[in-house]
Specification:
By secondary structure, this protein is an alpha/beta fold. The chain is built from six helices and 16 strands.
Amino acid sequence: MKVSFHGHSVVKIKTEKHTILIDPFITGNGQTDLKVNEEKPDVILLTHGHGDHVGDTVQLAADNDALVVATVELAEYLGNKGVNTQGMNIGGKCDFEFGTVKLTHAFHSSSFTDDEMGIVYTGMPTGILFTAEGKTIYHAGDTGVFGDMKMIGERHKIDVAFLPIGDYFTMGPEDAAFAAELLGAEKIVPIHYNTFPPIEQNPEHFKELVKGAETVILKAGETIEL
């Protein structure tokens, strides 16, 4: 399995047979190396409804007949846009052909700003546990640190955890380093930083703070093999 980072919170997972995109914010993302018309996802996983996470989901799903997995409210909203969706909720797990998806808590907010409808409530924000080919990836989504991260780590052997470090809207480096300790993941990758001025951070500082795990700072397009 190959797992790559593509700026902000965009993560791509390539298994033997499938390509999965998490939070495909491409258009307007100055940190990404991706181009919408070149991406061919089979599946899109969404942590929550904010525009910098839903991103180009509708176009990508339409162009590639991709399945979108999200909370039931966000799935319904996107389904009304013609997207093929599967709605889930926090704590729920579903085995798909491409792998297993389990949604976890995240402490944030979740809405989408629609040109016609205004602000649309899109359910609770989530983290994502994705398991395939014997490996488990945790994408925390946008969140503050919370104590149940310890339980998530105890209940699941996490090979790599993607954690936001940008502060202001999510955890900052100090809280994210504590989150890494709670999770006990083998590898930690910082995300959700340096996209906009309020979330500018030095990932090397975060790396210095993390104890007991390998911190891997990925530039856009770089890959970890699991």
